[in-house]
C-alpha cells in the first residue's frame, strides 16, 4: 500500500497548467469491463457509472458492474457520497464513502469471489472508501488516480485505480480505467456523456 501512496504523492508534484476547460460536474459512463483474477480466471461484463455534483463541494455517485459467465455470475454495485476540494478549475482532490452490495452465484471455485461472498453469496453488503485526484490535461484529456478500500463482510481489499478520459467535445468522450489489487486486475473501456 505504501507504493500506492507514493504514486499518488508523486502525481501531486506534476505541474498542471491547463485552464481553458474545467472538469465536468455530471457524468454518465457505460463500458465493457474485464476481470483478470490472479489464478488465471477471466470474466467479462458491463459497467455503469453516474456521478453528479450536488453542491460545489459535495457529489453523489452510483456504480454497477455486472458479469454473466457460463460458470458463474456476479454483480457489484455501490451508492456513495463524497467531498471534493477544487485546487483550480482543472484539478480536484476528493474523498468518497459508498455503500456496497455484492451478489454472486456459482462462484465456489473462484477463491477471490469466495472471499468476498460469505454463505451463498446473495446480497452481501459492505463499504467502500476512496481518496483521489482528478485533473484536466491538454484541454481534452482528464486523468484520475485513486486508492479504494473495499470492505465486504469483514474482508478488505485495497485497489489502485488509474483512469483517463478523452473528450471529443464538451458532451461526449471515451474512457479507459485500470484497477489493481493483489488478487485481481480490472480493465474497463467505454463511452462517457458529460451533462
Q: Extract low-pLDDT stretches.
A: 8-20, 114-120
Give the overall form: globular
Q: Strands of the largest sheet, in order across it?
A: 1-2-3-4-5-6-7-8-9-10
What is the mean pLDDT?
A: 83
CATH architecture: Beta Barrel
* Cα separation of the termini: 35 Å
Written description of the protein model:
- This protein has 195 residues and is mainly β.
- The protein has a single domain (2-194), classed as Porin (Beta Barrel), CATH 2.40.160.20.
- 9% of the residues lie in helices and 65% in strands.
- The chain has two helices and ten strands.
- The chain has helices at residues 2-12, 111-116; strands at 26-37, 42-53, 58-68, 73-88, 91-105, 124-137, 141-152, 155-167, 172-181, 184-194.
- Strands 1-2-3-4-5-6-7-8-9-10 form a ten-stranded antiparallel β-barrel.
- Strand 7 (141-152) and strand 8 form a beta hairpin.
- The longest helix has 11 residues, at 2-12.
- Mean pLDDT is 83; it is low at 8-20 and 114-120.
Q: How is the secondary structure organized here?
A:
Blueprint: H1 2-12, E1 26-37, E2 42-53, E3 58-68, E4 73-88, E5 91-105, H2 111-116, E6 124-137, E7 141-152, E8 155-167, E9 172-181, E10 184-194
Antiparallel strand pairs: 1-2, 1-10, 2-3, 3-4, 4-5, 5-6, 6-7, 7-8, 8-9, 9-10
Characteristics of this structure?
195 residues; 2 helices; 9% helix; globular
